[in-house]
């Protein structure tokens, strides 16, 4: 348990970096919906195409990806996300390499988020999908120091006119020891609805198991900060 809880200041803009379609909904959709209602501009980057997320013997990655990318657009539109950038890396094949780091630096310099939200790459006791670890690690590195420093990825300035940008913090979802919480009591139903947009993953509506899964998770997260429903994050602050 953390010694003290951090306070999350209201951002003007936020960027969510999600490895697969549906991860952002599980990790932070209640927070995003709350912020959007309060006037925050939110953007999503979807790193992989989700093409491996189907265990049906007749499934193929291309069709699965097309379905899941549309589900991600539907979920983002439902809660008022302004734009979804789809990087289109094959599901399960993300690498911590120059190309992926540059993609995320480009998004940060373009959208200028005060807060970047992404998976916690450092879980010790409960194993994460490889794409989640790499998404989290590269999102943090892209936020600090790469997007901040002019001479990193200089070509983004020279050929695309993207100025360096200092992001204040990362909020890591899926953290084993969250130290920052958002009260999502008012937007719990938006989170459920957004997750239900991923029909290929959660089945047809109405789906009471999905609703129970979301409510139980948010209720457990709310115990420490004293909210009916919450989302918990580990906060990483950067020098500005
Ligand atoms: Zn995932």
Care to describe what's here?
By secondary structure, the protein is of the alpha/beta class. The protein has a single domain, classed as LmbE-like (Rossmann fold), CATH 3.40.50. The chain contains 8 helices and 7 strands, in the order E-H-E-H-E-H-E-H-H-E-E-H-H-H-E. It has helices at 23-37, 61-78, 98-111, 130-146, 154-160, 188-196, 199-202, 208-222; strands at 13-18, 41-48, 83-89, 115-119, 169-173, 180-183, 230-237. It has a 7-stranded mixed sheet, sandwiched between helices. Helix 2 links the parallel strand 2 (41-48) and strand 3 (83-89). Helix 2 (61-78) packs antiparallel against helix 6 (188-196) and helix 6 (188-196) packs across helix 8. The radius of gyration is 17 Å and the shape is globular. The two termini are 27 Å apart. The mean pLDDT is 95. It binds zinc ion (ZN). Zinc ion binds at residues 19-20, 23, 129, 132.
